[in-house]
Amino acid sequence: MKPTRGFFGRGNRDPRLPPGQYDVGRDWPVLTAEPTPTLSTATWTFSVGGLVEQPMKWTWDEIVALPDSTYSGDIHCVTTWSKLGVSFRGVSVDTLLAAARPSASASHVLATTHTGYTTNLPLEDVTAGQAWVVWEFGGEPLAREHGGPARLLVPHLYFWKSAKWVSGLQVMDHDEPGFWEQNGYHDRGDPWREERYQGD
Amino acid sequence: MTAGILGGKSGIRVTEGLAAPPPGKWQSATVVQVRRETATAKSFRMELAEPSDHLAGQHYVLRLTAPDGYTASRSYSVASAPDGSQEIELTVERLPEGEVSSFLHDEVVVGDELEVRGPIGGWFVWRGDKPALLLGGGSGLVPLMAMLRLAHRMGRSDLARLIVSVRSPEDLYYSAELTRLGAEVLYTRRTPQGWLRPAGRLTTADLPAPIGPETTVFVCGSSGFADAATDTLLRAGVESEGVRVERFGPTR
After folding, report:
1. pLDDT tens digit string along A33-70?
2. A6 and chain B: CB distance < 8 Å anywhere?
3. Last residue of a domain, one of B95, B120, B145
4. Strand runs (DSSP E) across chain A, as ranges?
5. Each residue of B6-48: pLDDT tens digit?
6. Which of B6, B11, B248 faces A29 most closely, judged by CB atoms?
7. Which residue segments constitute the domains of chain A, with CATH numbers given?
8. Residue at B5 is within a domain
9. A179 in reach of chain B (CB within 8 A)
10. Is A15 on the interface with B (CB under 8 A)?
């Protein structure tokens, strides 16, 4: 592509930034398409269903009692900001799936939320230590506007895959576009390949 | 299609057949007009090499490329109504540390070529077929302006009602046009002289009553504005199913 007249770029060229991303620094932009819900941990649940041998449902007290797991690293939003060196704590999706035992034909999951938002992911992107359900950010409870009490975290994909207010995973034997995916966004969303929109 | 497995009350739904097509490829856009809106905002009208009709509320991504190949991209809402022309207008607020917005403000002149991709978005869009209440805070007015302009272009000004909240008179974009199109302006810090409504944030008293279930409410602004506006709407009895939000900017 041709350089833009007069533009030399003073942006951060940190190697942790995927192509087309900028470092948002200490800010954490909030991008949601709907009013922020108020969810009580007293009634909150998380389910794993669909093509599993043992459908599971955890209450808040049950899920936070599971072996915890942390992520330290970077997150990347499709709207071009990245936030570097963050940390989250929660439970590995591996732990949750192990309890439910996906059947042999399982290939994808659809993450569902307490608001109705959905996002689709290949099973191989939410296993092997790559995905979490998290309730702490930087040692503090996850704020409501960032998906609290708990959100999905799949940090190697664009952040719309890390569904806020997550309520469960539906295990499937096919891919089924979620909310943004039906609205033109990519089914996988790898920031290093700039898989932003359908067809990328 | 996913409704069956969602169960319960779901706020956000994609109606089948209404999803927007994927955006086109990167293309060149030639700046044909630059207009100052406020001390910190400018509108850039550009002619697209490969025009495509947008929906009111959609945005384009704009990408700058340095000689060494470094790129910087940001998304900007289209302010102009879909009008069948080859042009779109983006209104850009100059952010203090904004690498792209300050370049656009300080460097870009008529005749420059910029790289854009779009139109993008299938959720925060109004197709001009149902009543809409538009609530904008500051620069969040931009996509709502495309909706208001569309309503007037279609001769359906009855369908769209716009309320915009700004700090003070000099922060208001499109001031004369907003007056002409019958938009309501709320000032949160300082009003023009003789303004009847005292300065203050949006309250339920500022909302039209009633807001029927057939109305879609579009809220766009900073995170603080979006939270305050949606809380006000919910207090006024609007169901969260009827509210679509686009927000930007950091949390505190």
Report:
1. 888 899 999 999 999 999 999 999 999 999 999 999 99
2. yes
3. B120
4. 22-23, 45-50, 56-59, 69-76, 81-92, 108-113, 118-122, 132-137, 140-141, 151-153, 166-172
5. 333 344 544 434 456 678 889 999 999 999 999 999 999 999 9
6. B248
7. 43-193 (3.90.420.10)
8. no
9. yes
10. no
